[in-house]
Amino acid sequence: MKPSYRMIDLFSGAGGFARGFEEAGFKGLLAIENNPPVSKTYKENFPHTIVLSEDIKRVSIEEIRDLLRGEADSLDAVIASPPCEPFTGANPKRQKHPIDRLYRDPAGQLFLHAIRIIGELKPKVFFIENVKGIMAGEIVEAIKRELGRYGYRAVHFNILKAEDHGVPSRRTRVFVSNIKIELEKERKISVREALEGLPPPGSPYPPNHEYTTISPRKLKRIRGLKWGKSLIKYTGAGGRKLPNMIRLNPREPAPTVLGSSQFIHPYEDRLLTVREQARLMGFPDYHVFLGSRDIQYNQVGEAVPPPLSYRIALKAIKALETGISNL
Predict the structure, then answer these.
(1) How far from 241 is each of 35, 156, 227, 245, 254, CA to CA, in Å?
(2) N or C: which terminus of the chain carries fewer CB neighbours within 10 A?
């Protein structure tokens, strides 16, 4: 499909959000990503897009307009994935009071910079992705107030479960948008289906499909691990114990893929490769991840799953074609 809608991507990561939008018919004009290895991954996968490897706090609207050379004046969409660490329950250092997570935590303030750029550029539609923790306490009203200052009267907090929309792993996320996102549920995809057809690790194709080494001590423990059980637990917010290195159940979708998560193959005594974890997020095999192995795993786990992004993009196109009256 020939792209006919124009977008920019904030906190773009490895391009999971953009992958779905581009496949639906959007063309990425500009992406902003602060991490150089990650911005290189984005450029590798979307060579037609201008990729700005810069701290978004230092990026002005004037600079964006200069880079886009007039195309910013009739922008169709802005997609954004600001850091979730200030809001997630997996963060043991999360601010106690929810509103402080948005206004006092330096990483939380990046959400406000996404709003700043959206407000100045005034795209027809916008989507800001984050964890459900973004809806805690007074944060919802604060976000509505901030967007309202730029004229966005309708602000929706759309809660979507990725596993209901073509993604073979569980992932509940909130998409703050000026349109309501209602998607029909689909058949869940199992781990077995997601990994089907992959050659043994180390094969020439697909990329990012190499063995990850593991200590003999952990390997010994892995051998006795049953489906759904974890090798280790870590402490999250409020002292909660959260699992990691889970032996995947092949009959179900995988647990949530996180930047710090690693999974154990359901049938083999080894960790999943980066490509296998990318399969669990719905990335196509031609989407390449650059940087060190740890950075590659992080890029996968911190992405918006492309199948979910694609379905959101189709809703965006429908809204663009039928008209939007939020400003």
Answers:
(1) 29, 32, 19, 13, 19
(2) N
Does 3.90.120.10 match the CATH number of domain 191-301?
Answer: yes
Q: Count of CB atoms within 10 A of residue 71's CB?
A: 14
Whose structure tokens read 């990650």?
A: 38
Give strand ranges (E) for the chain. 5-10, 26-32, 50-52, 77-80, 125-130, 156-161, 172-177, 230-235, 241-247, 263-264
* DSSP secondary structure string for all residues of 116-154: HHHHHH--SEEEEEE-GGGGSTTHHHHHHHHHHTTT---
Residue positions annotated with a catalytic role: 84
Average pLDDT over residues 61-86: 91
Q: What is the pLDDT of residues 299-325, one digit of tens each?
A: 999 999 999 999 999 999 999 998 765
For the chain, the domains span 5-187+303-322, 191-301
**Alpha carbon separation from 302 to 91, 130, 324 (Å, rounded):** 14, 10, 30
To 10 degrees, the CA torsion angle through 96, 102, 105, 106? 170
Residue 127: count of CB within 10 angstroms of its CB: 27
Angle at 193 (CA atoms; ends 290, 317), nearest 5 degrees: 65
Domain 5-187+303-322 matching CATH 3.40.50.2000: the answer reads no
C-alpha closest to that of 258 among 285, 223, 297, 227: 297
State how far the Cα of 79 lies from the Cα of 177, in Å rounded to an integer. 9
Nearest CA among 144, 145, 130, 198 for reference residue 168: 198
